Structures are given as C-alpha cells and as structure tokens.
C-alpha cells in the first residue's frame, strides 16, 4: 500500500489532484491510503510553499500545480 498526502488548502487544484491520484490508482489496481493535509505546519515540514503538493511514502514528489496523469502513473508504478 502506498501512503499518499495531498498538501494544500483544499482548493480546486488540491481536490482535483486527489481525485486524479485516486482514479489512476483504482484503475491500475494499486492500493493507496490518501489523505488531504491542510495544516500549514505540515506543509512547512516538507518545505512546500506552493500547493498542491504530493507526498508518497514520505517522499515529496510534486508541488505547485496539478500533476499530469502520466506523472501520477509513473510515481505509482515506481513506488508500489
């Protein structure tokens, strides 16, 4: 199982990032535990100043924009 955090304030980009990750994982049969994290202190722990950000298994993968589907697919395939 992959543990995924989407860091951000709950904006449209953050929720669409979470939905994209969930959809791709489901379609690929990859088990994930995804949480949305809006606590600014947590974001600063990852040194993220621009959201949305994606953390997979405590590894910061992306920040500052909604990731492209091919990016999410590659992260999920590499880290599972």
TrEMBL record:
In terms of SUPFAM superfamilies, this protein maps to: Thioredoxin-like (SSF52833)
- Taking every annotated instance into account, which residue ranges of this chain make up the domain Thioredoxin-like fold? 4-76
A Pfam match is Thioredoxin_3
Protein name in UniProt? Thioredoxin family protein
């Amino acid at each position: 199982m992959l543990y995924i955090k989407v860091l951000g304030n709950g904006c449209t980009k953050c929720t669409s990032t979470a939905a994209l990750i969930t959809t791709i994982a489901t379609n690929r049969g990859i088990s994930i535990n995804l949480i949305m994290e809006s606590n600014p202190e947590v974001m600063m722990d990852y040194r993220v100043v621009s959201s949305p950000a994606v953390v997979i298994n405590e590894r910061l993968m992306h920040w500052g924009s909604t990731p492209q589907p091919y990016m999410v697919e590659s992260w999920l395939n590499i880290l599972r």
